[in-house]
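thought: fold this chain, then report.
action: predict
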Amino acid sequence: MEDNSLFKIGRLLRRLIVYRPPAEPSRFVLGEGFDDGREEGTKSEDGLKAAVGELEALARFGRRLELAVNKAKTALEEGEWAEKGEVLKAECAALEKQWAELRPILLAYDNRSENLAERAISTSLEENRRIIEVLYSLPANKDVVMRHITLGTEPPLKATLFFMEGLTDGNMITLGILQPLMLLAGGRRQAGGEGLLKQISEELLPGNQVKQVSSFREVQSGVNSGDTVIFFDGASEALLIETKGWEHRGVGRPMTEQSIRGSQAAFSENLRVNTGLVRSMLRATDLVTELIPVGSRTRMNCAVMYLESVASPKLVAEVKRRISKVDSDYLNDSGHLEQFIEDRFVLPLPQSLSTERPDRVASHLAEGRVAVIVEGSPFALVMPALFFTFFHSGEDFSLQPAAANMLRFLRMFGTLLSTVLPGLYIALTYFHQEALPTELAMAIAAAREEVPFPAWFEILMMEISFELIREAGIRIPGILGTTIGIVGAIILGQAAVAARIVSPIIVILVAITGLASSIIPEFRMAFFARLSRFGLLLASVTMGLVGLASGLLAMTVALCSMKSFGVPYMVPIGPKTVAGLDVVTRGAVWRRERRPDALNPLDPSRQADKSRRWEKEPPVGEGEK
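observation:
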């Protein structure tokens, strides 16, 4: 027994000391560095593959040249040069272009170039096919379709269709491209090269949008957006046909900007649907929509909309300049783009208005602003946006002036209350008790008699709890989120007061500030009010009313120093400009004769000075008496 035990201990020590390779393979670890996963031998073969690619391209050109020579020889022997001479001349011109593309120095440079998207389209159909296969990882990529066809012309013409399945309309491709080309293209070819493309686009393709492109960068941008590209043998350009047809959400009701009166349509994720909604609201012939692609890897279209006869050309040029100079791989939302084009300031305030309502975009365009709609985003950006713009609602001008002004004052007061109230309570109860009436001071002291925490800690704890409930109510789907938010707030507040963790007045104060912040129409402005509440609370804890006033003064200075696309953020207050009747309050719609002066519109007049002309005319029938 002792020997067996000693042997067991020895074997155990030997297993611990002597290394043995593991029986199972090691786990995958994503390491750092620039190793692409290929073996050294594979990497060393890259130069050899490039050389082989050059030789293959030259061999393909030799076969095309041999075929053209045989055609010319046959035409001369059979006496058909008069009939086929023009076609053969066009093929010879195409071969000359291909040879210029395949010169040894240029060929070696292109084959070793990593960015194939920057290449120009070749006159060789085979070369174009091979570049497309490399760019889109064919045949591994299964949702990319490459269709080879032959047009029944004399002589026959080879072509290749290329499109992305799932982004295109199959019926449109079949009836609008394949059927005209394969069934209606019979007859003799009258032209070659670019002339052939023009002839096909004008005579055979019934698509509403057909354009010629000359680089693979344009081909990629179109195909990735749902278009279909056609390469023709012998042409150094391709035809890009609009065949978009992916599934998208229809026009629904606004979810975050609900209103009682006014339009009930909201943007969707389809760019063309969104621009169409704006045009249906603002039916002006000078409403311009420019498309600017953004993204170096995925090209997302951004629609810049403005009234050419109203918007300032400098404003339009600045917006387009900022968007076109964005250098990023991917843009997926209008909020993503907004962070790229806005100015950098200390306060995290929005510098453009984000809205999901086409009617609000149309009204701001009529004032001289610029709207930006990002492909795939159901929200539009309107710029410039000023401080008081974020307290306006889409239904303000659908109500009587008295009702609209009352709501605007309520929003302003709610913003001030949400920002200042917790800090003001701490400053008065901690540093300036003499400012409170005696009965109120005694009531506050009695309510906090058995609470073990200081008042600022109570407010901070309840504010954080309120934010947790608010966020949970948003993230939990459906009506359950609203129910949990309401029940959670009631139970939490009641339990905290019963456990004597917080005083009842703190629960009331936090509930009022939370409700006041929710009355702000713009979510980002409401978030800034909630965020600044904590900063003013900290200032009040340290210095009382002096700290609160210092914090408000610093915020005012920062607001007056901000600009939104060149327009001061606090106009018409700082600097002083012509205010008009739509800043804090709004006047009657028939008194809004001028557009906002701060926007420098080309046409400052919105309507006639006497827009209610019926007041100067007698009623019907009165003039006959």
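thought: worth noting. The chain has four domains: 47-113, 118-247, 271-385, 417-567.
final: tokens above.
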